[in-house]
TrEMBL record:
This is Ubiquitin-like domain-containing protein. Gene3D superfamilies: Phosphatidylinositol 3-kinase Catalytic Subunit, Chain A, domain 1. It comes from Eleginops maclovinus (Patagonian blennie). Residues 28-83 form the Ubiquitin-like domain.
Length: 86
């Protein structure tokens, strides 16, 4: 069974994406791998951050550590460059 996630994109788009082939692959997938896949699927060239439920996702962690499973919803935020106003 293909594992899919719902993704709420930074521009308001909503999309279901295929993440991996099975549960075993999902257990090994990192947040960084998911971020790269989402960036390709949504054609995002900037820096994106991801949130599951209310928790920001750390790129070095496994999706498993957040309890992400088939049809979970991931929210994405586009990080814009900026500076300190003085």
């Amino acid at each position: 069974m293909t594992i899919q996630l719902r993704v709420n994109g930074p521009r308001g788009e909503e999309k279901v994406i295929d993440v991996c082939e099975n549960e075993e692959d999902l257990k090994k997938m990192t947040v960084k791998q998911l971020r790269d896949k989402i960036a390709r699927e949504l054609e995002i060239n900037g820096d994106i951050r991801m949130v599951y439920r209310t928790e920001p996702l750390d790129e070095s962690s496994l999706l498993l550590s957040y309890g992400i499973r088939h049809m979970s919803t991931i929210h994405t935020l586009l990080m814009l460059p900026g500076g300190i106003m003085g």
